[in-house]
Amino acid sequence: MVFLSNIVMIMTRYWQLFLIKGIGYTLLLSVIAVAGGAFFGSLMALGKRSKIKILKWIITAIVEVVRGTPMLLQLYFGVFVFPKIIPPLNALPYIYSVSIVLIINSSAYVSEIIRSGIEAVDPGQMEAARSLGLTQRTAMLSIILPQAVKNILPALGNEFITVIKETSLASTFFVGELMTQEIVVRGTTYLALECLTITGVLYFVLTFVLSKGLKRWERSMKAHA
Hints:
By secondary structure, the chain is mainly alpha-helical. The chain has eight helices and no strands. The chain has a single domain (2-223), classed as MetI-like (MetI-like fold). Helix 6 (136-166) packs antiparallel against helix 8.
């Protein structure tokens, strides 16, 4: 009973930190990462199909490095190393560096998702489009990519949910998301288990609602296909 009463007390006093600031920053970082990742990931996926070998090598190297190193290590590089290489970043709040790292990380994974989606489309479709006089670029943008996007939407939805959970690592730099608010409230109340429980429930609710919404959207798209 004491445990539950402490949770009620914490939510009564600090609900704005958890529900408004914490969830707000978490969703903001997630949307930035997925939107940026979708844009740059698409360019990277198309770049890997390019005939320019040096471009393919650079993109492949970026993808392998990002997929082969921990997110927390990437965040440390983004916050402490990148600003030394690019001095203007020194003047920016940590949230900008964190956002850049999240975009780079998401781009690497999204590029592989899009690449697999493109390769899943029947190669005969490109040949048919070229035989009708379409350029490779036009055929890719008008025929191949729309079909690939329908195939990869579930995977992109899963990437969004994954990014929401990965934003918790940004609490290392106190950028304002849910785990940062948990640290702040825990430091004020000295109720670690209760604060962690509240944060865990909020993360679960966020990801559960989003996953159910994405599945419903996927069924709707299949019904109208």
